[in-house]
């Protein structure tokens, strides 16, 4: 094994081009587990810890460009307003020690359906900035996950950042596990209201071969809310609409039975989380509308 | 490969380090610092917790090569040069927060970092800060007592 220690991003891209099978390591919270347990013996480890810009973010007018290695602990603390769904999801990652090391780039690189960031990324919307010596490209988040632990990266590409739409409305994240800390999701759900486009986006984790959106549920909800004029009136979402939304989220999942839970349980739990998180976000939206009209 | 870094304030060097080796292995097997414990090797238990440039991390998940030129502080660095226990260590002794002792080093490092940033933590703060450290003996109550005790004593000292 060779340990590659590029000092700059350009050096890292050159190293990845020269050794396309090199495994990038940043927080190490996935890669080191595989090495410790003899599940993986890469020819080259490509250490990204010395590249400072990967741990920075830039806030633009409509988006946040989040460096691939910004640790979850800093997302929780510093991006609650711009990326509330991702901040909530970050807080559910493992433990403080893991959140101090792990970041979104690692979740994307590993592309496990159980990665905690994925539902929030899918619900919030955005794109992955992948770069190689050949150039840089933005991969829409909807096209990024291609299979179980597979993603759209080319062998010579590294994840530089994710470009995420700044929240224009409330966002929520919910995760089922056997305890609060240090738990891999049995299943997880993210929701983001986008009042600017009068749409709702969702993300489902740990309940299909890849993280997915529940698109039929999103379309149904947007149409039902539009028809009832809810974005303007701020009235409660009718229980029948919430139930149908929850059923469609359940139906979008394609879960398996495994040690963490059964497919039936996952479908059920997703429906419950969908209904609850819709309720929470809608209440936040109504409160915000209320405070605006008072002012 | 050779890895050079600062451990508990002293420059240290390790030779013939395997490229896939963890910081935990280097500390325990090459530097004679067995305080950080090796249990799960997958970041679940927190018994290998050390501080990397001041930040608590699981040393089993840090590749040795990643600490080149950086600062690592382990449980061995908590007590004074003369062996006098630090406030959090003394509080663990006095509160009876130690049973088998295997989780204790990781808890001490995590609790010490908490009190450094948050001298009077709420119970929620303590639980969250220690949520990455498993203890299979105590049921945690005495550990929480110890952190409260250390916070109270430190507060009185100021």
Automatic annotation (TrEMBL), chain A:
The keyword Glycoprotein does not apply. GO terms for molecular function: FAD binding; xanthine dehydrogenase activity. InterPro entries: CO_DH_flav_C, CO_DH_flav_C_dom_sf, Diverse_Substr_Oxidored, FAD-bd_PCMH, FAD-bd_PCMH-like_sf, FAD-bd_PCMH_sub1, FAD-bd_PCMH_sub2, Mopterin_DH_FAD-bd. Keywords: FAD, Flavoprotein, Oxidoreductase. It comes from the Bacteria. It is an enzyme of class 1 (oxidoreductase). Residues 1-169 form the FAD-binding PCMH-type domain. Its EC number is 1.17.1.4. This is Xanthine dehydrogenase, FAD binding subunit. It comes from Actinacidiphila bryophytorum.
TrEMBL record, chain B:
CDD domains: fer2 (cd00207). Keywords: 2Fe-2S, Iron, Iron-sulfur, Metal-binding, Oxidoreductase. GO terms for molecular function: 2 iron, 2 sulfur cluster binding; metal ion binding; xanthine dehydrogenase activity. Residues 1-78 form the 2Fe-2S ferredoxin-type domain. Its EC number is 1.17.1.4. This is Xanthine dehydrogenase, iron-sulfur subunit. SUPFAM superfamilies: 2Fe-2S ferredoxin-like, CO dehydrogenase ISP C-domain like. The gene is pucE. Gene3D superfamilies: 3.10.20.30, [2Fe-2S]-binding domain. It comes from the Bacteria. It holds the Pfam family Fer2_2.
């Amino acid at each position: 094994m060779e340990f590659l220690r590029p000092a700059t991003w350009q050096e890292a891209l050159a190293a990845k081009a020269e050794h396309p099978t090199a495994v990038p390591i940043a927080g190490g919270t996935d890669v080191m587990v595989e090495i410790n347990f003899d599940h993986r013996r890469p020819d080259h480890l490509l250490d990204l810890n010395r590249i400072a810009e990967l741990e920075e973010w830039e806030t633009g007018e409509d988006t946040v460009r989040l460096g691939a290695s910004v640790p979850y602990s800093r997302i929780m603390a510093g991006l609650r307003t711009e990326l509330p769904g991702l901040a909530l999801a970050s807080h559910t990652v493992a433990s403080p020690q893991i959140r101090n090391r792990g970041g979104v780039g690692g979740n994307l690189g590993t592309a496990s359906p159980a990665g905690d960031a994925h539902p929030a990324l899918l619900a919030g919307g955005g794109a992955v900035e992948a770069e190689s010596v050949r150039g840089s490209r933005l991969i829409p988040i909807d096209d990024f996950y291609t299979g179980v632990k597979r993603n759209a990266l080319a062998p010579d590409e590294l994840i530089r950042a994710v470009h995420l739409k700044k929240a224009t409305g409330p966002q929520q994240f919910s995760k089922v596990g056997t305890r609060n800390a240090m738990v891999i999701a049995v299943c997880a759900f993210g929701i983001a209201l986008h009042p600017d486009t009068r749409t709702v986006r969702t993300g489902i984790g740990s309940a299909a071969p890849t993280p997915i959106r529940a698109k039929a549920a999103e379309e149904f909800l947007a149409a039902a809310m539009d028809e009832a004029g809810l974005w303007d009136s701020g009235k409660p979402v009718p229980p029948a609409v919430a139930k149908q939304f929850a059923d469609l989220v359940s139906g979008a999942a394609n879960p398996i039975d495994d040690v963490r839970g059964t497919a039936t349980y996952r479908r059920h739990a997703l429906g419950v989380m969908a209904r609850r998180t819709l309720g929470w976000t809608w209440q936040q939206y109504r409160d915000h509308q209320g405070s605006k009209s008072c002012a | 490969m050779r890895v050079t870094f600062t451990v508990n304030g002293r420059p240290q060097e390790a030779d013939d380090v395997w490229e896939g080796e963890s910081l935990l292995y280097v500390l325990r097997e090459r530097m004679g610092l067995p305080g950080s414990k090796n249990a799960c090797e997958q970041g679940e238990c927190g018994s290998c917790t050390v501080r990397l440039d001041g930040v608590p991390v699981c040393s089993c998940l840090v590749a040795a090569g990643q600490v080149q030129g950086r600062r690592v502080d382990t449980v061995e660095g908590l007590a004074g040069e003369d062996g006098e226990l630090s406030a959090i260590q003394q509080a663990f002794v006095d509160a009876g927060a130690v049973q088998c002792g295997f989780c204790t080093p990781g808890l001490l490092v995590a609790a010490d970092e908490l009190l450094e940033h948050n001298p009077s933590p709420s119970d929620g703060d303590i639980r969250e800060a220690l949520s990455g450290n498993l203890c299979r003996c105590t049921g945690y109550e005495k550990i929480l007592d110890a952190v409260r005790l250390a916070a109270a004593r430190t507060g009185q000292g100021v």
